Structures are given as C-alpha cells and as structure tokens.
Request: fold
Amino acid sequence: MWAVGRDDLCVLSLEVRVMGSALPLTIVALALLYLPYRISRGFSPAARVLIVMIVAVKAMLITVIHLSYVNSTGHPIVLDESIDAKRYYDFGAAFANFDIAEITHDDLTKERGASAHLGYYVANLIAAKACPDHPMLFLRLAKLLSFHIGLGMLATTWRITATPTRAIVAYVVLGALFYQFTYYGFRNLKDDLILAIFMVIMAIADRTVSTTHRREALSLKKMVGSWIAIAAMLWLLSTLRFYLALAIVCAFGVHTVTGRGLKASHRALFACVLVIGFLGFAGTTGMDMAREHGGAGAVAGSAGNVYGLFKIFVRPLPWQHVTPMMGIPHTLYLFLLPPALWALLVRLRDNLNWKLYLVGALALILGAFMEDYEPRKRYVMYPIFVSWIVLAGRRKEEADSSEEAPFDPDAYFADPRNVYT
Reply:
C-alpha cells in the first residue's frame, strides 16, 4: 500500500489546480483561433487569415499585458478610480469557497447589495470558478471571443447584403481600429461584452426584419427561432445594462409599425413577442430604476435640448480624454460620423428601421438619465453607423439582378449573326 504524506498531497493539489486553470484557458484560446475563422467561411482565404491575425494579436496582447501586470503589481485588474471594476472582481472572489451549485439568487443579491444588473457580477463569479488561478485572464479572453463572434456574425450579414470587400473593411474598422474595447477590458468593465451581445442581436435582426437586406423568405418556424434567440440575448443584455435592452425593445416596437416587407403573420408574431417582453421588463428592478430618474417624462424632456443631444454623439473632444490613448480611436470615430450621416440620408427610406430608432432612443436616454455620461455608453451606436456606410453601396436585390429581359424577336433577327444565308 502506498503511503501519501502531507507534502505529497499539497503538491498533488497544486498540480490539479494548475491543470484546472490551464484547461479552460486552452479551450478559450483554441476557440479564439477557430470560431472567428469558422464564422468567416464565406470570405476569401486572405480575408479569413486577416481576421485570425486580428484575433490572435489581440489575444496575445491581452495575455502578455495581463501576466506582466500581475507580476509587477500583484493585482489581476487595474486599480484606479473605477470603483465598479473592483466590485465585480471582489464579488467573484467572495464565492471562491462556495460550490457553484449551492449558490442561490438570494446569495447573489445579498453580496451585490441589489437585485439589478447581476449579469457581469455573475460573469466574474463564473470566471473565478472556471479558472481560479487566472480568472481575469480567462474572462478577458472569453469577452474577446464573444466580441469577435458577434462581429463575425455581423460581417457575414454585410457580406451577403453588400460586398465582401466592404464587409471585411468594416470588420477591420470595428475589430482593430476602435480598440478601446480591449482597453476597457483591463478596467474589468462590461462594455465589450455588451457590444458583443448587441452585435449578435443586430446580425439576427438584420436577417429577420430588416428592410435593407436581401433575405430569404423565412418560414414561421425560422422566424420563431430567430425571435427566441433575440429574446434570450435581450434578457442577457438586460442583466448588464437594462435601459439598452428596453431601448431595443422599443425600437423593434416602432419598427413593427413602420417597417416594410413584413408579412402580416410575422408582424403579428413580432408584436406579440414585444408586448410580452415589455411586460416582462416592466416587472424588473431596472424599470423601477428608470421610474426613479423620471421615466418617460425625463426622456421626453431631453428631446428639447438639441445641443445636449449633439454632445452625446461627439463629446468629449479627443484631447479631453483622461487617458491620451483613448483620443486616437475617438478621433477616428469623429471622422466616421460625416460619412455615416451621408449614408443615412442617401438611403433614408431604407434606414427608417429599428437601428435608427435605437440611435434616437439612446440619445434621449443618455441625455435624460446619464449625469455621469461616458463615451463607452454609446459604443453600440458604432456598428450601426458602420452598417449605414456599408449598405450605402449595397447590391441590388436578387430579384432585380437575376431577372432576365423579355425576348425581343425583332432585335434578334435584326442581328446578322442570327440570320441564316
């Protein structure tokens, strides 16, 4: 019989823990290399390689900077004026000695101090359980993966609708140039995850209800499946940032009334889902928070502040950023606005849909409620602006491009090549 000493047990426990942390990191790393490549299968080989390079470089930078920061400071997150970042991390650490199956909603609410917006707290908890040695590295890579899954789905929609070239340029703009999402990852904030979920919703919705996309005639089964997926994403989004999910629901609601090309049965299903979703939101603590800040009255009041709404789209000025590096992508964003506005006006009839309504709703909400407004709260507008530019040069409808001209006998026999002599 083997005799196992205490030192041997300690070594074995350490090895198991290291292996337990290495496995989830390996899985998410392999997923980062495979899933974005898989989603982009309709693009050319060169474009797919470019996508993989973007993802791989960002993953490598996140890993190197994370490990370097931990070695130099001993902390897995950037400790600065961002109080929320530490709260998220401390929440996950508080449940380190709990079995995840035994954790109840009441436990989460008690530790959080409130029942609203538990989503990202739970994400930190899951990261702490899945990868105890490097929970923040695991969470950052997982968020990067979700971001590029959402962006890949959106780029695929643009490839089908417009051209592969426009789609891959848009992918680079959102995935490489506006790199502040990666920057906020080191603050342990939730904005890149929010953007990822929104891009998934946008990609599914644009293939389901958009009037500017060539799309197959969806069966009722596919329509129901699409809306179940959108509903699930909206629920996840509501646990992260409630007013954004509610604004999307309201934008979809307006779209049911104004949208072109929807079957009557699909429009009715659309409306039923939205009513049920709105009633579900009405019973949440997020709705109570909105009422405390003035509710619909505050949103209506902000509509009269034209200059305030203008500032929502442009502020701060690039040199006003506390962190200078944030001024670089913001400058690119300011250059993006004029062509986005032009593209909106060029196809205004097509762009009168849920995305335009959402931009308007977010501007009103930010102007009404957000006294501590930060540019990261408008990030979901970026893929909408880019989509307007992409679709400004979209292809003609399939029906138009594939329709053959009627046979003209006179023109046929007038051609000497078609006359026998």
Summary: The radius of gyration is 25 Å. Residues 6-39 form the longest helix (34 residues).
